[in-house]
Amino acid sequence: MSKKGSYKSVGGDFRYGDESVSRFINAVMLDGKKDVAAKIVYDAFDIIAEKMTGENPLEVYRKAMSNIAPVVEVRSKRVGGATYQIPMEVKSSRRGALAFRWLKLYAAKRGGRSMAEKFAAELMDAANEQGASVKKRDEVHRMADANKAFAHFRF
């Protein structure tokens, strides 16, 4: 079987039936404790619903994920003894994985509250084009833009 086969569907989550939320819960999960991860994510969604009245937390989550996910990134390639940073498009599966990773990282770095509150704050900031995870995406895009002269080295 080839390595580039299709990915297994993780199915929808318990509350919303959304596969992306289910993947996010899996990304948050530590040591196989999925119930704890689901509680954190759903509590974060409840906080979003409470603080942003009239907003659907799932829509805030989707908007935040689209604002965090990078479109291009730089990848290293060695050409004739020199290493170049080559801007390349990011595949959709990697876009989601990077968005989850950055959201998790920068939410954890926030102040000393519960993890659900940290996720809620980072998601709300990301939905409003603010927050550390969006800054990380902008930084990655800036790096790709700065190195677009090496785009002809794409592999």
Characterization of the model:
This protein is mostly helical and 155 residues long. The chain has a single domain, classed as Ribosomal Protein S7, CATH 1.10.455.10. The chain has 6 helices and 2 strands; from the N terminus they run αααββααα. It has helices at residues 19-28, 34-51, 57-68, 92-108, 115-127, 132-146; strands at 72-79, 82-89. Strands 1-2 form a two-stranded antiparallel ribbon. The protein is globular.
Q: For the terminal residues, how far apart are their CA atoms? A: 24 Å
Mean pLDDT: 88
State the helicity in percent bands.
40-55%
Q: In one word, what is the shape?
A: globular
Strand content: 5-15%
Number of domains: 1
Main pleated-sheet profile = 2 strands, antiparallel
Strand/helix succession: HHHEEHHH
Counting DSSP H or I runs of 4 or more residues, the number of helices is: 6
> How many beta-strand segments?
2
Structural class based on helices, strands and sheet pairing: mainly alpha
Look up the CATH topology.
Ribosomal Protein S7
Task: Please list the strands of the largest sheet in the order they lie side by side.
Answer: 1-2
Determine and state the CATH class. Mainly Alpha
CATH architecture: Orthogonal Bundle
Query: Uncertain spans, ≥5 residues at pLDDT below 50?
Result: none
What's the assembly state of these chains? Answer: single chain
What Rg do the Cα atoms give? 18 Å
Superfamily (CATH H level) name: Ribosomal protein S7/S5
GO molecular function, one term: rRNA binding
Keywords: Ribonucleoprotein, Ribosomal protein, RNA-binding, rRNA-binding, tRNA-binding
Protein name: Small ribosomal subunit protein uS7
InterPro entries: Ribosomal_uS7, Ribosomal_uS7_bac/org-type, Ribosomal_uS7_dom, Ribosomal_uS7_dom_sf
